[in-house]
Amino acid sequence: VQLQASGGGLVQAGASLRLSCAHSGRTFSRQGMGWFRQAPGKEREFVAAIDWSGDSTYYTDSVKGRFTISRDNAKNTVYLQMNSLKPEDTAIYYCAARSVGGTRFDNWGQGTQVTVSS
Predict the structure, then answer these.
(1) Torsion 66-20-74-30 (CA) sign
(2) Closest C-alpha to 38, from 96, 80, 90
């Protein structure tokens, strides 16, 4: 399985971006998905997750109300809509897939850079 993240870029504070992550396998509709980010000099942190059905979503506190994770199982794609971006959101964003029926994120994409200028 390969995960291909895209949609990053350079934006000003307050702008919006939508990240996409395409999943190449046949198990996408049975896997929970997540987004993580890593800022320069910092450890990777959890951003958002969604269960296999899309019915349940989870967010880190710093993005609640601004970011929305969603998925389209017909397109094997998970999205992260990011609104009201702040300079502190600057990071490389990674998508990840949980193992089928599992809890760990064990399949990772290559990351897409998001830079928010003040």
Answers:
(1) negative
(2) 90
> How far is CA 5 from each of CA 14, 55, 65, rounded to the nearest angstrom?
22, 22, 22
How far apart CA 93 and CA 100 sit, in angstroms, is 22
pLDDT tens column, 71-111: 999 999 999 999 999 999 999 999 999 988 888 999 999 99
Residue ranges of alpha helices (H) inside 19-73 are none
**Token pair of 79, please?**
């999205």
> Is the distance from CB of 114 to CB of 93 less than 8 angstroms?
yes
Residue 58: what are its φ and ψ, rounded to 5°? Answer: -140, 145
Report phi then psi at 42, rounded to 5. Answer: -120, 165
